């Protein structure tokens, strides 16, 4: 079974002078269910021509040929700055040479005597190549956006106080983009890929003869590499959360909540979570961002639930008139308008009240990774989404008793009619209990 969904008919360039070995390789790939077209070459000239004409997605190369070899072939790839995965397939290369070539940048290697891991390594190499291509596109877009933001900052310097505030926000966004540019660069991805390759080599060659201490250390390396991958993905999610170029829509949160619950259904059932969803007032939001916000809050409550106690999650919303909102005395709330208030509470492990503000700081964690997994970015994303909506989020934690989040989003006058129209279209909700999920939902 292919672990990563490879696009159909990938182009595989096979550098091999032994016809029998080449046929055996092709038959193995066909039997594995891989959809591909291949071209077999054995000389430097045809290899170079194939790079221009055949345009391979991946290269499978024998280590040594009579007039050519894998080292020379890979040097051609590097000299041309081609990001094509390069896997050596050989029965004579030896592990020491394989490790040396991987240090030089070769993607991986497979023994001719054992093709069992070939499909997995092809899948992983194709996935990494696709991710690298996406990152290069993203970095190019970030450069363009950065240039545009710097230009906008120069223009905004001459505007009034409100526009100066906007200039600061754009400057902060620019700094975040630049930070992400640095973190997600090849310098971060490359060491992680090497670690994963070396883990694969050790598990394939050394696991049976390894001491228990060695096996334990290898598992710890694997856990660290996995967490690094999660950190990179979370950083990418954080960088993508931007209010720029996204449309607001008057939305009913019920559909968003049910969608998130469906995605987390396994954990919900495992922990026997109970949801109490009271009347939800429509609101003018960026829907996909609020889906991420709801997902992060619910998954946080499930993760930090009290052991052996079913999580009890309550979600509700109301409209606060401006006078009511002003009585809350919240900071940074200059807009004179009504506010939409979403409250989210649970009965989990909570936290000490002194951390009410710290939990929104990126990478801030109140628990060790061995106790609770995560990267400390989830609530930073939640706060950034709220700020994208010109809103305010407040957390109130009580140690061992749970946490309450209150989100306040301003309601512009021009959106009130659309919200009222959606409210009139909604049928009266009926609260039911799903016996399989042990959770409340609204029909």
From TrEMBL:
GO biological process: one example: osmosensory signaling via phosphorelay pathway
A GO term, aspect molecular function: protein kinase activator activity
Coiled-coil positions: 112-173
Enzyme Commission designation: 2.7.13.3
Enzymatic class: transferase
Record-given protein name: histidine kinase
Pfam families, per the entry: HATPase_c, HisKA, Response_reg
Catalyses which reaction(s): ATP + protein L-histidine = ADP + protein N-phospho-L-histidine
Keywords: Coiled coil, Kinase, Phosphoprotein, Transferase
Domain Histidine kinase: 183-413
PROSITE patterns: HIS_KIN, RESPONSE_REGULATORY
Lineage: Bacteria, Pseudomonadati, Bacteroidota, Flavobacteriia, Flavobacteriales
Response regulatory domain mapped to chain residues: 11-127
Residues annotated with 4-aspartylphosphate modification: 62
InterPro entries: BphY/WalK/GraS-like (IPR050351), CheY-like_superfamily (IPR011006), HATPase_C_sf (IPR036890), HATPase_dom (IPR003594), His_kinase_dom (IPR005467), HisK_dim/P_dom (IPR003661), HisK_dim/P_sf (IPR036097), Sig_transdc_His_kin-like_C (IPR004358)
Species per Swiss-Prot/TrEMBL record: Flavobacterium hydrophilum
């Amino acid at each position: 079974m292919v672990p990563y969904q490879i696009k159909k008919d990938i182009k595989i360039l096979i550098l091999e002078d032994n016809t029998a070995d080449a046929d055996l390789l092709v038959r193995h790939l066909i039997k594995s269910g891989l959809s591909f077209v291949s071209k077999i070459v054995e000389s430097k000239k045809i290899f170079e021509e194939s790079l221009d004409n055949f345009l391979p997605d991946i290269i499978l190369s024998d280590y040594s040929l009579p007039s050519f070899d894998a080292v020379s072939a890979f040097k051609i790839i590097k000299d041309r700055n081609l990001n094509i995965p390069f896997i050596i397939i050989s029965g004579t290369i030896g592990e020491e040479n394989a490790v040396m070539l991987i240090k030089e940048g070769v993607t991986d290697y497979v023994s001719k005597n054992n093709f069992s891991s070939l499909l997995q390594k092809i899948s992983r190499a194709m996935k990494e190549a696709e991710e690298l291509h996406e990152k290069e596109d993203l970095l190019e877009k970030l450069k363009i956006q950065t240039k545009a933001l710097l230009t906008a900052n120069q223009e905004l310097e001459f505007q009034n106080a409100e526009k100066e505030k906007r200039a600061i926000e754009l400057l902060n966004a620019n700094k975040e983009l630049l930070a992400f540019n640095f973190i997600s660069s090849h310098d971060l991805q490359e060491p992680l890929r090497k670690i994963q390759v070396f883990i694969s080599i050790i598990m394939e060659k050394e696991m049976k003869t390894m001491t228990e201490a060695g096996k334990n250390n290898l598992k710890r390396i694997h856990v660290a590499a996995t967490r690094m991958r999660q950190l990179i993905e979370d950083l990418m999610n954080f960088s993508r959360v931007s209010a720029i170029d996204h449309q607001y829509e008057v939305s009913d949160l019920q559909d968003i909540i049910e969608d998130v619950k469906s995605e987390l259904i396994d954990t919900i059932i495992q922990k026997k979570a109970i949801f109490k969803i009271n009347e939800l007032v429509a609101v003018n939001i960026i829907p996909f961002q609020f889906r991420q916000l709801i997902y992060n809050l619910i998954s946080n409550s499930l993760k930090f639930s009290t052991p052996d106690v079913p999580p009890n999650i309550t979600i509700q919303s109301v409209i606060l008139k401006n006078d009511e909102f002003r009585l809350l005395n919240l900071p940074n709330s200059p807009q004179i308008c009504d506010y939409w208030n979403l409250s989210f509470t649970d009965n989990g492990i909570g936290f000490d009240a002194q951390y009410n503000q710290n939990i929104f700081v990126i990478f801030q964690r109140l628990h060790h990774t061995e106790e609770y997994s995560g990267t400390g970015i989830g609530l930073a994303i939640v706060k950034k989404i709220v700020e994208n909506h010109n809103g305010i989020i407040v957390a109130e934690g009580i140690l061992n008793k749970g946490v309450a989040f209150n989100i306040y989003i301003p309601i512009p006058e021009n959106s009130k009619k659309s919200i009222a129209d959606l409210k009139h279209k909604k049928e009266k909700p009926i609260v039911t209990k799903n016996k399989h999920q042990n959770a409340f939902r609204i029909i």
